[in-house]
Amino acid sequence: DTGVSQDPRHKITKRGQNVTFRCDPISEHNRLYWYRQTLGQGPEFLTYFQNEAQLEKSRLLSDRFSAERPKGSFSTLEIQRTEQGDSAMYLCASSPQNEQFFGPGTRLTVL
Amino acid sequence: RKEVEQDPGPFNVPEGATVAFNCTYSNSASQSFFWYRQDCRKEPKLLMSVYSSGNEDGRFTAQLNRASQYISLLIRDSKLSDSATYLCVVNIPNDYKLSFGAGTTVTVRA
């Protein structure tokens, strides 16, 4: 157990619904990342926070995706108007510097 | 061209065997290198960082070849518990994200 927690672990939703995931990083880590992973692929970077500032967003992060880290601690990732192509594992990682430690992920299935 | 490329395998080896595989990276400015291990439907877990001089952690040895832009992982005396997907990971300076390969699957059989 790395100390990074994510909630929920699984989410099944219908197309068009909004979903929100939460990540609690390791408390002393100021860097927080969101990745998405589909079957047979490595994780793909979505966005990065240093403390409460969102410093980088991938082109993969369409307008339907938004992430926040309001107090520099936990983070939320919201997907609006979900599509079947959003089905994936959403991974959160935290880092003190270079090495990143992943949470267990939230597996999203969009029907 | 993908930033990080790996042979997907699978590498099927008997217990006790040695297995080795490489990954290549495209950005010559890459600075940090890692191997992560991922079990089926689980999160990636850091196996080891890869240093310029090469490094060893128990049965695992990682090597970096900057000239040819590849990283290798060697597993000696394979155990059943080594069965997993091994992800090659690269980071470039001033770029916070990690770039992952698609993974190499290793299956160790009894």
What does this structure look like?
The complex is a heterodimer of chains A (111) and B (110). Chain A is 0% helix and 50% strand. Chain A is mostly beta strands and 111 residues long. In chain A, strands 2, 4, 5, 6, 9, 10 and 11 form a seven-stranded mixed sheet that branches. Chain A has a four-stranded antiparallel sheet with strand order 1-3-8-7, with no helix packed on it. Chain A starts with a strand and ends with a strand. In chain B, 0% of the residues lie in helices and 53% in strands. In chain B, the strands form two sheets. In chain B, strands 2, 4, 5, 9, 10 and 11 form a six-stranded mixed sheet that branches. A five-stranded antiparallel sheet of chain B has the order 1-3-8-7-6, with no helix packed on it. The chains are: A mainly beta (111), B mainly beta (110).
List the helices and strands and how they pair.
The complex is a heterodimer of chains A (111) and B (110).
Chain A: E1 5-7, E2 10-13, E3 19-24, E4 31-37, E5 44-50, E6 53-57, E7 65-68, E8 75-79, E9 88-95, E10 101-102, E11 106-110
Parallel strand pairs in A: 2-11
Antiparallel strand pairs in A: 1-3, 3-8, 4-5, 4-9, 5-6, 7-8, 9-10, 9-11
Chain B: E1 4-6, E2 11-14, E3 19-25, E4 32-38, E5 45-50, E6 55-57, E7 60-65, E8 70-75, E9 84-91, E10 99-100, E11 104-109
Parallel strand pairs in B: 2-11
Antiparallel strand pairs in B: 1-3, 3-8, 4-5, 4-9, 6-7, 7-8, 9-10, 9-11
